[in-house]
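Protein Entry — a single chain follows
Next Lines — sequence and tokenised fold
***
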Amino acid sequence: MRVVRPGELDEGERESWRELRAKSGAPANPFMEPEFTLAVAGVRPGARVAVIEEGGSPAGFFPYERGAFGHGRAIGLGVSDCQGAVLRPGLHIGAPELLRACSLSAWEFDNLEAGQRLFAPDAAEESGSPVIDIGEGFAAYEARLRARSPKFHRTTTAKERKLARQAGGIRFVFDERDPAALRTLMEWKSAQYRRTGRRDRFAQEWISTLVRRLHDTRTPGCSGVLSVLYAADRPVAAHFGLRSRTVLSCWFPAYDTEFAKFSPGLVLHLRMAEAAAREGIGVLDLGRGEAEYKDALKTGELRVQEGSSTCPGVRAALYWLSREPARHAHRYVRSRPRLAGYAQRTLNRIGRLRSN
């Protein structure tokens, strides 16, 4: 086994990564492709990849970021929606062995992919990642949505028609290449973070730079896709995500609050699903986290896990003390609706104070 910077992987090794991933049987999530790791490496100097070899050929790849005191984290932790190692089926290796080879005392994850048997025993929590299945085409999905949530579907489509009448027409662009539209989306999203009392991700230079670079990434396994809903020529809702041939990972949605009464974000997601189906995409992964629009649109969910794997030792113990008490407190609050509601109202009040 050897550890390299992502940019040191040659094209043959990157292709081996893609082939191993294709053979895994897991959904073709773009966050698990080498292109995402390479993009993160451009903005996170601690990015590394462990290359596991067997018989002189690559048998696995483990992307991660190395921090102080040997504390590791999933590549792009905080924004990556699918995490883990890419291994040959049947490869025998343990998490402690892998972490020692990477000189890590611990490795933290918050969206560990289902089926990652190497790290799954160390998960502290499991949650759902809602998905929209459009494998049978958009018409079939819309028919199911209409049958399951007739009022939601009727209201959303009515708002779309009303927006079109009042604005003099609407149009949807599935893959918008205009950088100005991306800047608008990031401004909306930053305002939303502040409005809801959350940390503004785009205030972190590495995240905003990463998104801009991924917008320019065009490969079969990982491409940036900016989708925009326009009222006349004015953008009213947008979304930036990553796609492979068969999966669209939904990442950063936002809308112009001046048009909130038209629910432009919901209209956008329906148009995204329709366009994605035409592109041959079978699944929209809406990402972990509770939201009413996800509950309304989803057809099912994948399972993701949060936790950390450690190697026995003092550094691992210190890591556990710095992370697990807070994680347990968050889990306690989330599992109690009244407390969770109070926490959300508090965040909203903080957001309003920030905006004033």
